[in-house]
Amino acid sequence: MGLSAGVVIIGNEILSGKVTDENSPFLARELRQLGVELRRIVTIPDDLDLIAQAVREFREAYDVVFTSGGVGPTHDDVTMAGIARGLGRRVIRHPEMEANIRRFLKGAVNEAHLKMSEVPEGAELVPDASLGFPTIKFENIYILPGIPDILRKKFHALRDRFTDAPYHLRVIYTCQSESMIAESLNQAVAEFPDLLLGSYPKLGDPEYMVKLTMESKDGEYVQRAFDRLLALLPAGSVVRTE
Q1: What's the N-to-C CA distance of the chain in angstroms?
Q2: Contact 86, 55 (CB under 8 A)
Q3: Could you read off the pLDDT of 63-114 as tens digits, one per residue?
Q4: What is the pTM of this model?
Q5: Are 63 and 30 in contact (CB under 8 A)?
């Protein structure tokens, strides 16, 4: 089995529709490219108990966990406190982060600035040369910001940590509806039970009606499944393949 992952998106603004979540689609794409199996994404409000519950559950269920949002200096940035509660830890000011903030601001420091140095006790700082501000890590939990541009830069700085055996992908585009090819798909899955087979209809496209994706970490396995499905599909139904 390869690495598994869970993503916790935190923020009232996402649930209220004020802000569109860009981070979970980004993480899903990046993790897939790395060969990591993303098992679950949950979106929760800025609520201490819900954050605590989510990180407790995800920490035990998945090899690596990413949280996004709620790590700024304002009243609704409660992610650090929620994670600390979920792990049974105190929130502390990390001395290295506090020193860096004081040095950067040259003494003009207020409580909002210092809140940015708060972490769950026992957290690790992962240096980030691209931004100059470390990523906070506690065991298998990576605590990321909610601002998409910053989250992407931080993830790219971390991504080599999560490289796993890649997924191999083959794609078939068909000009038949799902109901016309369902029997072929069922037969392919029966013969290749470990195949990740996806079927995605598209309305109004002049080229194709259904996109079929086949994935496996075993390249030879997915190729055999691909060849078999091509043979099973109705004659003339395949538009093109990838």
Answers
A1: 26
A2: yes
A3: 999 999 999 888 888 999 999 999 999 999 998 888 888 888 887 888 888 8
A4: 0.88
A5: no
